[in-house]
Amino acid sequence: MDVCLLVDVFKKHFPAAIDSFQDAVKCLAEFACNAAFPDTSMEAIRLIRHCATYVSERPQALKEYTSDDMNVAPGDRVWVRGWFPILFELSCIINRCKLDVRTRGLTVMFEIIKSYGQTFEKHWWQDLFRIIFRIFDNMKLPEQQTEKSEWMTTTCNHALYAICDVFTQFYEVLNHVLLDDIFAQLHWCVQQDNEQLARSGTNCLENVVILTGHKFSPLVWDKTCGCMLAIFKTTIPHALLAWRPTGMEEESSEKGSVSVI
């Protein structure tokens, strides 16, 4: 089956095909995850990007859509039937595919978020970031150390900068619902053994402060300073500060014994 056929159907008959939209996007994601056909993978991701355009251009069709098994408010149908399937399947591509395909999937996912995020409701963002933060989930990271290091250096690193770009772009909405989660994620990155990801965590925190600091309330500044302090404490080389050369340790012990006598 030609993957282009799916998108052609939505282009010409979107209202009539809404009931199959989720299955079609999942089908495109499965094409994207087929490692045997890399060109088809890239084409499938491109077509998922087109699906986002159709959702953006025809939200009313999704709002007016009704189904016996769908007890969702009309305003949320655009999210449940449209945006969520697209973004969720892109996250699956990111978590399942090899580097080149998952990098393209990650780029497209954040392109969609940046392009259409102004239409998202506040509670949609919470669902969305639950999906995004799965990229950093320790339980889902590769078990092999080499693969895990590559994942952190490439995918996690790329995702972290993209998250902060989105946060600064939509700060007025996101600071009320996701500030604590963003700071927690930056702190997590700094705690990792991967030096590049740890550096990126501090760089991203700096970027957030520089770009949105003029909008911070006193409470947000308190949380920001708390995050900086936590990062500082985490990265202090306590073992190095407490280290003494072997000779000095023995000398200190002897002095202690003499003092006691």
Give a short summary of the structure.
The protein is mainly α.
Structure commentary:
With 261 residues, the protein is mainly α. 79% of the residues lie in helices and 0% in strands. It contains 14 helices and no strands. The chain starts with a helix and ends with a helix. The relative contact order is 0.07. The model has no long low-confidence stretch (mean pLDDT 84).
Observed structural traits:
single chain, 261 residues, mainly alpha, 14 helices
Shape: globular
Largest beta sheet, briefly? none
What Rg, in angstroms, do the CA atoms define?
24 Å
Structural class: mainly alpha
Helices and strands in order, then pairings?
Layout (H helix, E strand, L loop, with lengths): L2 H15 L3 H12 L5 H20 L1 H6 L9 H23 L2 H18 L5 H11 L12 H25 L1 H7 L1 H13 L3 H18 L5 H18 L2 H4 L4 H15 L1
Helix pairs in contact: 1-2, 1-3, 2-3, 2-5, 3-5, 3-6, 5-6, 5-7, 6-8, 8-9, 8-11, 10-11, 10-12
